[in-house]
């Protein structure tokens, strides 16, 4: 015996509970979109929005690093020499501090 059909063409026992239905086409009642599909569509929308924003930024403002190529090369010779002096001074202080009797280390 066939199950009786409702007006939308879905049997009464085939309709999932309300907690399992996420979006339903109210006009025809024939299709549903699962929650995971909604999450995927939202993620795709976010990715597309970010790409559109990035492309507009590139078109309107150009590159963030345009004209700053020398700033991306790293520290200069003066800074490297200064950093070397600081490291040597700190190592000497650690060495001499560890050689005393009062040293906690």
UniProtKB/TrEMBL annotation:
The chain crosses the membrane at residues 33-54. Keywords: Membrane, Transmembrane, Transmembrane helix. This is Uncharacterized protein.
């Amino acid at each position: 015996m066939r199950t009786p059909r409702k007006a939308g063409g879905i049997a009464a026992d085939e309709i999932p509970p309300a907690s399992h239905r996420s979006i339903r086409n109210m006009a025809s009642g024939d299709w549903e979109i699962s929650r995971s599909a909604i999450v995927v569509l939202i993620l795709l929308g976010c990715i597309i929005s970010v790409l559109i924003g990035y492309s507009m930024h590139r078109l309107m403002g150009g590159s963030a690093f345009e004209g700053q190529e020398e700033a991306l090369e790293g520290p200069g010779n003066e800074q490297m020499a200064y950093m070397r002096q600081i490291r040597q001074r700190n190592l000497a202080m650690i060495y001499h501090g560890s050689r005393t009797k009062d040293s906690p280390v």
